[in-house]
Every structure is written in structure tokens, then in C-alpha cells.
Write a structure and sequence with these properties.
Oligomer: single chain
Strand content: 5-15%
Helix content: 25-40%
Radius of gyration: 15 Å
Largest sheet: 3 strands, antiparallel
Shape: elongated
Number of strands: 3
Structural class: alpha+beta
Length: 70
């Protein structure tokens, strides 16, 4: 059985936690930063859970080895 190719851009945007959930980086960090308060800019450093059910299925299809790790 041949190996399945990983979508490289998706692998850079999404990470898997130890509990198996998929996390993504918040959007909007690099655009119009002067207007945003520091509290908002610091919140962009955190990752959030990717909870869209259809999106999770799509990400798992693009990253076949993400779900199979440890």
C-alpha cells in the first residue's frame, strides 16, 4: 500500500494536542495592529480548538498521519 501525501500548508496551520483535538492559530494578528489593544494582540498568540465538524473531517483528510500519532 503506498503512502498518502500530507498537505504541507495544512500541516503548518494545524496542530494536534495530546488529547487528540486539533488546534489552529487565531487570524488577524498581522493586519492593522496599531488600532488593536495589547490585550487583543496577546490573545492572538494563543491557539484555539478547531471545532467545526466538517472542517475537522477535511483537515484529517489532508493530514492523514495527524490522527495516527502517538
Amino acid at each position: 500500500m503506498p503512502k498518502i501525501r500530507t498537505h504541507k500548508t495544512t500541516s503548518k496551520r494545524f496542530k494536534r494536542t495530546s488529547s487528540g483535538k486539533i488546534h489552529r492559530v487565531k487570524i488577524g494578528k498581522s493586519h492593522l495592529r496599531r488600532k488593536k489593544p495589547g490585550r487583543v494582540l496577546r490573545s492572538f498568540d494563543k491557539t484555539v480548538e478547531f471545532a467545526n465538524p466538517g472542517g475537522v473531517k477535511r483537515v484529517k483528510r489532508l493530514l492523514p498521519y495527524l490522527a495516527k500519532k502517538g
